[in-house]
Specification:
Elements (H helix, E strand, L loop, with lengths): L8 H9 L1 H10 L5 H14 L6 H6 L2 H9 L8 H19 L5 H4 L4 H9 L6 H15 L6 H5 L17 H22 L1
Helix pairs in contact: 1-2, 1-3, 2-3, 2-6, 5-6, 8-9
């Protein structure tokens, strides 16, 4: 299984093959286009000298990491706060999962445990954690018992409601259409 979210083969390959890169992308996936968020780990890897080493990120001087996030093009519209979140995630991965981001899901006995592991990460609220459970299940085959239930509506087969459902340009368009309709409905409700 391979992730196809960015339209960039190298960025998608990194997300498919490097669990820490995928977690970083999920952290960054807010308030910027998803293609930009999911391509950012490749840029960060380049800025780190070609290796997206979780231990290096965890131990870096925070100001140096912010500088890497802020360099043009910035990795996020809020580079300082996102650098801090990514470093917080890296520290948890090092301290609690032996430096292997994949242990976030490999160590989970079931979907609820996986959801709990993800909710404990900086920048992962309830919805983002559920979306990530769905992405892991739908796109990478990470399916511990109860994963679809833990993912909530994002785990439903055939849905086009989140990044978990995007496997190419057509699915991206469907997800964007769904999000726009939800936004329009919310705006009508407020009026």
């Amino acid at each position: 299984m391979a992730i196809r979210l960015t339209g960039d083969e190298a960025a998608d390959a990194l997300l498919t093959n490097d669990a820490f890169a995928l977690v970083v992308a999920m952290v960054l996936d807010q308030q910027i286009p998803l293609e930009r968020a999911f391509a950012a780990p490749l840029l960060l890897r380049e800025r780190l000298g070609g290796d997206l080493d979780v231990r290096l990120v965890a131990s870096m001087d925070p100001d140096e990491l912010v500088a890497l996030f802020s360099a043009t093009p910035a990795l996020h519209r809020f580079p300082a706060s996102m650098a801090a979140r990514v470093q917080g995630v890296a520290r948890i991965v090092v301290d609690s999962y032996g430096g292997s981001a994949a242990e976030l899901w490999r160590s989970a006995a079931d979907g609820e445990a996986l959801l709990s592991n993800l909710r404990a990460l900086p920048g992962f609220g309830e919805q983002k954690a559920r979306i990530f459970v769905a992405l892991l299940g739908k796109q990478l085959g990470v399916q511990p018992a109860g994963w679809a239930e833990a993912a909530g509506p994002f785990g439903a087969p055939g849905s086009y409601v989140s990044v978990a459902d995007i496997d190419g340009p057509e699915a991206l368009a469907k997800v964007r259409t769904h999000k726009q309709s939800m936004k329009s409905a919310a705006e009508r409700k407020r009026s």
